[in-house]
Design goal:
Layout lengths: L9 H9 L5 H26 L7 H23 L1
Helix pairs in contact: 2-3
Length: 80
């Protein structure tokens, strides 16, 4: 387990504390959710660049590489 120290504006901290967002379990859930969202956005960006008719071998490899990268990131997060 790692302890993280971050500097935030006082008002933001007060609002987050009042909403129960500074609870360690809630922070973990928020971070995991954001990481999933960013992984999805990365895949969506690759998808949006795909030609509508045919996937070239280069594009297919880019998709495979992106999926592997996301899986490796997830594996590293889960290992720590």
């Amino acid at each position: 387990m790692t302890t993280v120290h971050i500097d935030l504006p006082d008002q933001l901290v007060q609002q987050a504390r009042s909403a129960g967002l500074l609870d360690p379990q809630k922070m973990e859930a928020l971070l995991r959710s954001q990481l999933r969202r960013e992984a999805f956005d990365s895949l969506r960006a690759v998808h949006d660049r795909l030609p509508t008719e045919e996937i070239t071998p280069e594009t297919e490899q880019e998709i495979v590489d992106t999926v592997r990268s996301i899986r490796n990131q997830r594996h590293q997060r889960n290992a720590s």
